[in-house]
Amino acid sequence: MKPTTGTAAAAAVDRRWLLPLAIGSALSLLLLVLLTTFPLPFPFPSSAASRPPNPTLFVEHKLAPSPPSTASPPRFAYLISGSAGDAAALRRVLLALYHPRNLYILHLDAEAPDSDRANLAADLADHPVIAAAANVHVIQRANLVTYRGPTMVANTLHAAAAFLYTNQHPHLEWDWFINLSASDYPLLTQDDLIHVFSKLPRGLNFIDHTSNIGWKEYQRAKPVIIDPGLYMKKKSDVFWIPQRRSVPTAFKLFTGSAWMALSKPFVEYCIWGWDNLPRTVLMYYANFISSPEGYFHTVVCNAEEFKNTTVNHDLHYISWDNPPKQHPHYLTIEDLDRMVASDAPFARKFHADDPVLDKIDAEILLRGPDMLTPGGWCGGTRENGSDPCSVIGNTTHLQPGRGAVRLQRLMTSLLSEEKFHPRQCK
Fold first, then answer.
1. Residue 287: domain span
2. DSSP string of 98-119, one letter each residue
């Protein structure tokens, strides 16, 4: 066998690479055809400088508000608060407001004895409808609340956070958060309220507000106070600091009513705070007199994504002095016609078991003593004098009445061209 020459050996090596080279060229041609024929699944900018920022890198995009629910009818998440001696009134307000679709948190502050909370929780656990729906929670680790200090804001945020926690369960989702006290009372049924709100955009925030703080600048914004509820076990009035401060320039101050109905997206913004505004404002209002009348108002009106969602009304009938004092008048039977004529869904303040509450039960809510307010959800019968609302039926079935007509009239007025946008965050 003759050995091959150098030229012949080189030719043999070259022939061994011909087949891989041909296959590679064919694959390259096929890939080029595919790239020029079918679009890429992702944008491919010509340079890195033209590439937009990746939104997944920023926490703000991950914590954006959840889109408002479009399911109908809506659900309400109620915080009903009270203090020592308010357990019975708190229970009465709950029964008047009750609907199996809604969620309820009851808070008796730390001034009330633990036995009041325990007895209230045990009583509601024995209620057949409330126990079956499992939609009422009594706060056991109570907060000490000073109305004129920030502890009331902290308590409201506590309840709001608890409601957001329940959203891990789809059947506990909700659309509006409403804060009430044991001295509030409804002027319509929940069927009335749900029926009217089912027609509204779920992102609206009902909050009475103004930037014309007037005398409050000197008497509330510039003083510095300390709320003893933050560090003491017994309730007392706020402490005043001799020094005064200037009005902030990083955000504009707003004030208004402490009672409101807030949308779920805005509540998420206040709790999660995907930018720093809610925390910054909260720290400022930690030393502000009557901070419940300013915190949420200032946040909503300084947040670009929410300032155009406000409806300038607190959904209450309240009888004030002129100029207003720290607390409004207590309402009686003499005020009933004015309450109803206001078309508001709630009123305050009431003394516990005032006769006007019995009249509201009998003539407006059609509610018997110690019974739930009836609605389309009541699935029982009236045979042998039984209560039809002792059985939960179809919770989406509504039976709106005269209260819905009044509330619809109010909403038509509040959302009119003359009142809606012109009264927002001015």
1. 76-423
2. --TTSEEEEEE-TTS-HHHHHH
